[in-house]
Each structure stands twice: as structure tokens, then as C-alpha cells.
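Q: what does this look like with acetyl coenzyme *A bound?
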Amino acid sequence: SLCPSIHYRPINPNDLDRLEQIHRDIFPIKYESEFFQSVVNGVDIVSWAAVDRSRPDDHSDELIGFVTAKFVLAKDSEIDDLIHYDSSKGEETLIYILTFGVVETYRNRGIAMSLISEVIKYASGLSVCRGVYLHVIAHNNAAICLYKRLMFRCVRRLHGFYLINRHHFDAFLFVYFINGS
Ligand code: ACO
């Protein structure tokens, strides 16, 4: 639309079909239906949807972008060696971003930036949360630029991390440290 009005909200069960469709459209990896069920029902998963309220009624609440994430115990994570532990604060956690994307027609308007900022803001408000981390395929320049702009740090290159159509691809591991990590 000419004057988009982008809002951010949690993903809910009404988003199921659209969420599955966007994942199919923009990711080379297949996700199981249990994954989508956990996302829309908020089972062990936190999520944010971007919607454009300026669209006609039947589309005004339809996903145009999303980010899904889960909690991981810092000590059980693959970056446990990078975390500064403070036992007085209880069990340290991290937020791991699972999937994240914006539909093509809404790209380059800062929506992805806002979605990841929502995750960082949420994580920063939790005293036990030490950071936000994710994997990204090594040739995804758009996403890599975005993480760098948001002050994520690239801490590892994982050789052959992704297996797509019988080909292996490297991944980068990016971390945004919070609360003194
Ligand atoms: N080339 C280079 N840098 C880019 C590009 C691009 N095509 N697109 C975005 N960026 C970077 C820039 O630094 C940009 O800031 P700037 O415009 O001020 O320079 C910054 O990202 C923010 O751009 P946004 O407008 O917020 O990004 P957008 O809403 O267009 O979405 C996204 C970016 C999510 C990567 C989108 O291209 C997409 O959905 N791609 C397909 C799915 C995907 O790759 N998801 C991430 C996978 S990793 C994971 O899921 C954990």
C-alpha cells in the first residue's frame, strides 16, 4: 500500500497458514508442522509478527514479517564459554533466534531491523538473560549486514553447518551480548 502502517504483535493461532506459507516462500529448509504449532501456540517459543494495518480489512492483520525464538540455558548452549556467569542472579539464559524474515514486497523499510530490535529489547528486560544468538548461512549478505548494524558479534564460522539439497554450507554464529556478558 502507499502508506504502510507497520505494527508489531505476538504471533497467534490465526497466523498459522500464513506463517507456514511465508516460511515455504523464503527459506530453503523445510520446517515440520510441530514447529509452526509451537510458534502459534507460544509453546517454549517467543515470537513477533509485523503487520500492515493500512491494508484492506481482511489483510490488515496478516503477517508481512516475523521472528521466532526460544530460550536456551546458557550453560547448555554452544556459546557457554563466552558467557560471564553471575550465580547470584539465578540460572542464566540466552534467546536463540530460530527463523526470521520479511516478505519481499515489504523489504528495505527497516522492518527486519525493528523485529530484531524487539527481541533485543525483550531480552534486555530479563535480568537472567545474557544474550541473543543465531546462525546464518555464510552467503546471506542482507542478514549478515543487518546483524552487524545491530551490533551483533560474529563469534564463529561453522563449516558445513547447513545441509540443503545434499550440499553443505557454512554458517556464521552471531551473538548480541546483554546484561554484562
Ligand atoms: N543487501 C545488503 N544489506 C541489506 C539488504 C540487502 N539486500 N537488506 C537489508 N540489509 C541490511 C542493511 O544493513 C539494512 O540497513 P540499511 O538499509 O540502513 O543499510 C539493514 O539490513 C536493515 O534492513 P531492513 O529494511 O530492516 O531489512 P528487511 O526488512 O529488508 O529484511 C531480511 C531483511 C530479513 C534479511 C530479508 O531480506 C529477508 O527476509 N530475507 C530472506 C529470509 C532471511 O534471509 N532471513 C534471515 C535468515 S537468518 C535466521 O533466520 C536466523
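Residues 47 and 68 are 4 Å apart (CA to CA). The chain has a mean pLDDT of 94.
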